[in-house]
Amino acid sequence: MVNAAFGRRIVCTLGIVGGRDKVLSLFFCGKRVLGRQQFLSPSQAVVFRMIFDHYCFDMVPQLSRKEAGSYYTPTDVAASLVKWVVRKNSDLLLDPSCGDGRFIAHHSNSIGVEQGVAAARAAKSHAPSAIVHRSEFFIWASDTNKRFECAAGNPPFIRYQTFKGEIRDRALAHCKDLGAEFSRLTSSWAPFLVVTASLLKPGGRLAFVVPAEIGHAPYAAPLLEYLVAHFGEVQIVAVRKKLFPELSEDCWLLYADGFGQRTDQIRFTALDAYTPSNRPPKSGILVSVAEWRSVWKRRLRPFLMPAEVRELYREIATRPDTRRFGDLACIGIGYVSGDNDFFHLRPSVAAGLGIPERFLHPTVRNGRALPRQRLTQETVEDWRRADEPILLLRIPKSLRELPRSVSQYLDTEQGQQAKTGYKCRNREPWYSVPDVKVPDFFLTYMSGKEAVFARNEAGCTCTNSLHSVTLKAKASVSRILQGWTSPFASLSCEIEGHPLGGGMLKLEPREAAEIILPSMAARDAMPLRMIDEALATMRAWRHYGA
C-alpha cells in the first residue's frame, strides 16, 4: 500500500494526469530526485525510477556506454559461452545484466535482468522467448525465488568512483551475507558475479566475460575466493588480443562448474586470441589456490610467464640477501594541490606578480618530465629557461600575515575559483597545500616501457602523479641504486604492478613496496636472456608499443 500510494503521488507530481507540458517542466526536478535517492526508501526509489523512465524516457539524457559499463559482447563470444553453460533445453539461464539481449537470445528458456530502459526494450526484441525484468539487479536478486541451472553474460564494469551510494551498499551487504566481503573500492562486476552464483541450483554453471583485473586487482580476490569455495571447477582464460578493440581495458573469460562443491586449484589458460568454441580450452596450468594466496598475493598475472621464470622469481624473493623496496624506503604519492593551474606558476608569471622566492618551490608535475637516474639543478634551470609551470605556490599553514603580492594573487578571479574546489574548500587555510615533501628519490606512478627511478639532487617536490621515495637509512642508497639497474627489478615492477590500459604500467605505493631488489651475488648468477624474454612477455600482455 505504501508503494502504491507513493506511486500515485509521483504520478501526480510529474504531471502525468496534467499533461506532457507539466512533465517537461518538472523533468529536471525528477532528475534531481533520482540523483538524491538516499532520501527515498529502496522500494520507493525503484517505483520512482520506473515511473520516471516510462514517462520521461525521451527526455532523459542516457548514460554514456562508459558510465553505464555497457559494452556489449561480440555475438560469437556470447553464443560460445551460452552453448557451454546450457546442457539441456530445459535449463533455465540467467543473465544478470542482459543489455540488448545477445546472451539470452541464444537460449529460449532464459531470464534477463536489465536496468536500462532502451537496453531492456532491445533485449525483449532480440530475445522474444525470454523473460526480461526491468529492474536493478541487486534488488531483483534479493526478492526472487527463482533458481537457475546456469548463468552467462557480461556484467557491467563500473568503477568504484561511479559504483556508489545505496546500490553499492546493498550489493556489498548482500555479498557479505554470502561470505564474500568486498571493500568499498570494488568495481560493480565482482559483486554481480557473487550474487549471480548464489542463485544457481546445486551443480550449476556460469560463464562470463570479465575484466582482466580479475588477474591482479585486490578487489577481485574475494570473488575468486568465493568461486573456489563454491564450485568444483574454476577456469580463467586470459586473452591477449582484445575482445573489445574500442576499449583500453582487456577482458578475460571466467568458467565455473559444479556449484555447491569446492576446489583447491584454478585452471589458468593464456591465449593470444580467442577462437569461439562450445567448451573452454583444455590447455593451461593448474594453479594451487594455496600458492596463489601465499606466493603471488592472490594474483594470476604471474602465470602468464613460463614456469621456470616463476621459479626463479620465487628463488630470488626468498634469498636472505634479497630486499623488497619497502624494506629500504618509504613510498608515497606526492601532494594534491587542489587546482594545478592556479598553484603551479611559470617563472615569468611569478616574477610579474612579484611573488617572493621563499613561497615558490620547484616541483616535478608528472612522470614525463622526470629524467632517468638523476634530477639535477641543471634540469630545473632548463625548465626555468623554458618557462615551464614548475613553481609550486607553497604557503606555510601557520603563516597568518601574507605578503601583499601573494594576497593579491589569492584574490584574483582564478584564486577565488580555486577556493571553491573540493580539496581547497575542505582544508584550512584553503591556499596552503598540504603534504609537500622533498624526497630522496622519485618513482613514476604510471610508466611506458619501464618505471623511471631518479635521485632528487635538485631538492624538488612532486605532485601525486609521482611517487615520493624517502630512504629509511641513508646507507641504503648504493643498495637501491644497484638493485634498480637490474633487469630483474624491471621484471619485478611488471609482476608487482599492474596494467592500466593503453600499454601503461601502474605502480600503487603498496605495489612499489613489494618490488624485489636483488643482491649483486644474485644478479651475477641470473639468466639474463630468460629475464628479458619474460619482460617482453609481460609488456606484450599490457600492449606496450601496440
CATH overall fold name of the largest domain: Rossmann fold
The structure class reads alpha/beta
CATH superfamily of the largest domain: Vaccinia Virus protein VP39
Number of strands: 23
Q: If you compute it from the alpha carbons, what radius of gyration comes out, rounded to the nearest whole angstrom?
A: 27 Å
What is the number of helices?
25
pLDDT < 50 stretches: 6-39, 52-69
| CATH architecture label of the largest domain | 3-Layer(aba) Sandwich
Q: What overall form do the CA principal axes indicate?
A: globular
Regarding CATH, which class of the largest domain? Alpha Beta
Tally of individual domains:
3
Question: What's the arrangement of strands in the largest beta sheet?
Answer: 3-2-1-4-5-7-6-8-9
User: How confident is the prediction overall: mean pLDDT?
Assistant: 87
The helix content, as a percent range, equals 25-40%
Protein model, in words:
This protein is of the alpha/beta class. The protein has three domains: 2-61, no CATH class; 68-304, 3-Layer(aba) Sandwich (Rossmann fold), CATH 3.40.50; 330-541, no CATH class. The strands form five sheets. A nine-stranded mixed sheet has the order 3-2-1-4-5-7-6-8-9, sandwiched between helices. Helix 10 (189-198) runs parallel beside helix 11 (221-230) and helix 22 packs parallel to helix 25. It is globular and about 80 Å long.
Question: Which structural traits does this protein have?
Answer:
546 residues; alpha/beta; Rossmann fold; 3 domains; nine-stranded mixed beta sheet; five-stranded mixed beta sheet; 38% helix
